[in-house]
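Predict the 3D structure for this chain.
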Amino acid sequence: MISKKIVLTGCFGVGKTSLFNRFLYQKFSEKYLSTIGVKVDKKVVEIDGRKISLLIWDVAGEVAQEKVPQSYYLGASAVIYVFDLTRPSTYLNMQSDLDYLGKMLKSVTLKVVGNKVDLVTAEQIGMVEAELPHPADCLTSAKTGENVETLFLSIGKELLG
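Done. Predicted structure below.
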């Protein structure tokens, strides 16, 4: 069976851990607990009759922060850059974060994900999308589960080729 590393990254408080917990354990908590370091777990999924082990890394803090060792990103097959649709501060530096990731990780699958879609209206989504330096690949809600499974399975499918 093939195994692939997927790193969840982005600003603090955007819902990386909530996406991690929703996908791996089908759980959501309203409590905010800041991740310290990195949390790692895996889930085996079947895509088009093929099994793939997704090793998910939930990285604490900011993308290019000195406190986040570059080694957390090494060996990644995919990166999910998460931002919060309700907090512009979480996507204002998106382009520099994506540039940093692009320089560090060559030929990696990158998905830009707007989380907390359950907290915004369609009109607000339109306004956010107009401000984004890079279009979102997916809009999710870790709380409701909207598009979470779809996100990870689409990455798995892409990694299987």
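The mean pLDDT is 92.
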